[in-house]
UniProtKB/TrEMBL annotation:
GO CC term (a single one): cytoplasm
Family to which this protein belongs: Belongs to the UPF0235 family.
NCBIfam families: DUF167 family protein
Origin organism lineage: Bacteria, Bacillati, Cyanobacteriota, Cyanophyceae, Nostocales
Protein name as annotated: UPF0235 protein FJSC11DRAFT_3017
InterPro entries recorded: DUF167, YggU-like_sf
Record-linked Pfam families: DUF167 (PF02594)
Highest taxon, organism lineage: Bacteria
SUPFAM superfamilies on file: YggU-like
Length: 75
């Protein structure tokens, strides 16, 4: 499954909201430095979708706030 994600780094709380266009807005505590926000994003999505972190990858937008995430849900 592929989902569009908008990341909001340096937030006070970690949370996930669904936007009107069915994409996700993910609030992260980590700063967007040295891939820390991307690591936290994968961890948060892993917990939310109940899949191992190894099954989640960022297809596009590694250095952008707009990302396309691929989650392999076939177990």
């Amino acid at each position: 499954m592929q989902i569009k994600v908008k990341v909001k780094p340096n937030s006070k709380m970690q949370k996930i909201e669904e936007a009107a266009d069915r994409s996700l807005i993910v609030y992260l505590k980590s700063p967007p430095v040295d891939g820390k926000a991307n690591e936290e994003l994968i961890k948060v999505l892993s917990e939310n979708f109940h899949v191992p972190q190894s099954r989640i990858r960022i297809k596009s937008g590694l250095s952008s706030r707009q990302k396309l995430i691929e989650i392999d849900t076939d177990l």
